[in-house]
Specification:
With 95 residues, the protein is an alpha+beta fold. Helices cover 40% and strands 16% of the residues. The longest helix is centred in the middle third of the chain and has 17 residues, at 49-65. It is flat, with a radius of gyration of 17 Å.
């Protein structure tokens, strides 16, 4: 969750990973059956120290502007959020 009350400075919905400061992967793939069966996903793997450092730096920057949200906070979300979630639930196969 974003720590700022005005919203997050940006959103990157990608999964990133670096190993040994040289191998990186960036993608949208989720490790679940839905992604395997329904969704077209892309993952890029790169061997490059500079990219690995940039991804690690971005991750560190992101850690400074987020805070953890717990189950209690999720339960306290407003009625608009709950209604929106229920509406989009019906379109989950296509979203």
């Amino acid at each position: 969750m974003c720590a700022s009350s005005s919203g997050c400075p940006g959103l990157l919905h990608a999964k990133t990973l670096t190993i040994d400061g040289v191998w990186s992967t960036v993608g949208s793939y989720n490790l679940d059956s839905r992604s395997l069966l329904y969704n077209w996903r892309v993952t890029l793997e790169v061997l490059d120290e500079r990219l690995a450092e940039q991804l690690e730096e971005k991750f560190r920057d992101d850690l400074e502007v987020v805070r953890a949200g717990g189950p209690g906070e999720f339960r306290r979300r407003g009625p608009w959020s709950k209604l929106r979630e229920r509406f989009f639930y019906f379109f989950r196969v296509w979203l």
